[in-house]
């Protein structure tokens, strides 16, 4: 059937205990794991940025001893090429939920991703911790859209990018 989207193909589904010490290790593993499938060095770099920032946030802001966090990476073809999705779900500490919602809204609402990034850099200088720069970086540098889904007690942040020409890789 023409124009029928292919089902989402999960490349990786990983449950983990959030740990800042493991963020770079998991990012490097994912780069190596996905490179042959993505077959696009720029997309691998963008995926690495998003993965690093999402895992770092999960490690910093999860409730200690709560259920494991989850990293899911999937890819599928759409009418514009391929779509890469990186989802990180965790149980955030209650005191960080409001900031997470506000940060995602602040990063996703402006039409201009670079402008949102610059605004977050200014705010970070004033605020310090919890600056939102990682999420702004995903949108501006990795050129990925962001979405937040709350399913209490879980929060899921998803970064999505479309790439390729729609032809066979």
User: In terms of per-residue confidence, which ranges show pLDDT below 50 for 5 or more consecutive residues?
Assistant: 1-6
Per CATH, the class reads Alpha Beta
Overall radius of gyration: 16 Å
Whole-number total of structural domains: 1
* Architecture (CATH level 2) name: 2-Layer Sandwich
- Helix and strand content put the structural class at alpha+beta
Layout of helices and strands:
Layout (H helix, E strand, L loop, with lengths): L8 E8 L6 H16 L2 H21 L7 E10 L2 E10 L3 H15 L4 H15 L5 H8 L4 E7 L2 E10 L6
Helix pairs in contact: 1-2, 2-5, 4-5
Structural key phrases:
single chain, 169 residues, alpha+beta, 5-stranded antiparallel sheet, globular
